[in-house]
Amino acid sequence: MKQRVAKSATSLKDAIAEIENFRTDINKRLDELEKEVKDTATTIHHDNNKMLKKTETACDNINRSLQASADTLKHLNTNKKTDQLFTELKSAQQQILHNENIAKQLPTTNDVDEYNFEPNHAIKKLLQNEKSLGALRKKEIKQPAQPKNKAAVPMKMTTSRNINVKTSSDTKECHITGITISPQNQLFVADYDNKSIKMIDINSEEIKQLQIESKPRDVTIVTRDTLAVTLPGTIQFISFSSNSLSLKNKLKVDGYCYGISHHQGKFAVTFILPVKLQIMDLKGNSKITVEKDSNGDSIFSDPGYVITNSHSIYVSDEIKNKVKWFNWQGEMIGRTVDIYGPMGISLLDDGSFFVSDAWDNCIYRVSGDCKDRTTILKDVKDLPQAICWCAETSTFYLSTYRSKSKVRYNDIKVYKMV
């Protein structure tokens, strides 16, 4: 009941926030349009004033010259200086002709732009015809089943193949710290040591590579054509297509971020300095920060990878030897029994998840409630790190590190599940 009351309150809060954000976006756009038309009016006014000032100055000069000439003629006429008067009259006549030519070239009142404002009828009509700012609709969310306490049906992995992700432009051996896969079956990896994101065509194994400013930690799919990558102090967005990668905008964050997972317009991001989990929107606005429990003790020691679905957030903590389970309100619901060195996490459709154990050299499948686990893969030759599960093809991808042969860093191990 408490959870439902909290959900109701959160639903109201989220709906009001969305309404206010929508109104803010409308106001912002209207402010931009208002500024544009005001700037245009100001420019016209400035041009008019500039032209009128020029005319005013010219008229003042003509008036002064005519007044000076008239004063001279009056003086000469009063003093009966006929010869000088004749000469001055001729000069005045020339001055008048010169001033007439200047006056003819000056802008007239017809040259001044007068204007009024004509509203955009499309906007006016829209506001008159619309009856509501928007609609409130019941969320069509499938009620998630409670994660099962028992491990799911066992899965068996076939013999692996390797995909070599080292390219000719790499200056070091690869260290793959993040893996994700797109709906188009493009594999994306974060190469920490070579400061790059790589896109691999799974069939041809062709690689496209994008250099970035610093060492990436993790990568997640945001939309059909956008990735998000964690860097020290930054989340970098990257655009991708079938054959290219390019940098987009980036978000500044308040710490050294590590793992990242996206779900329905929200990020769950882990930080290793300071140690915490943050839930934020796609603009980087922090919604919830998880650091300490009710006793004031730190929840994490070394939060690494994070994965999410509609009702759960799972975070691996290598030092505390556990995967911890949270809801989207930041409340810890459960945790696994000890796993020696939990690292990469990947979700299955039934709510269970895979986790790599870097120190026991194995891969576990853990039930969604974190109470039960089975070993899916054991005796991995090199220490397993990042993992990714593709449900469509029943394929499991795994990166390793700290192997005796550094060349093995360059391979993504690929397993088929049966």
Write the layout of secondary structure elements.
Layout: H1 2-78, H2 82-105, H3 121-129, E1 161-164, E2 176-181, E3 186-191, E4 196-201, E5 207-211, E6 219-223, E7 226-240, E8 245-263, E9 266-273, E10 275-281, E11 286-290, E12 303-308, E13 313-317, E14 322-326, E15 332-335, E16 342-347, E17 353-357, E18 362-366, E19 373-377, E20 383-390, E21 395-401, E22 411-416
Antiparallel strand pairs: 1-22, 2-3, 3-4, 4-5, 6-7, 7-8, 8-9, 9-10, 10-11, 12-13, 13-14, 14-15, 16-17, 17-18, 18-19, 20-21, 21-22
Summarize the entry for a quick read:
The chain is an alpha+beta fold and 418 residues long.
What tags apply to this protein structure?
418 residues; alpha+beta; Neuraminidase; 2 domains; 6-stranded antiparallel beta sheet; 22 strands
Would you give an account of this structure?
- It is a single chain.
- Strands 6-7-8-9-10-11 form a 6-stranded antiparallel β-sheet, with no helix packed on it.
- The longest helix is centred in the first third of the chain and has 77 residues.
- It has 2 domains: 128 residues; 256 residues, Neuraminidase (6 Propeller), CATH 2.120.10.
- It is of the alpha+beta class and 418 residues long.
- The protein has 3 helices and 22 strands.
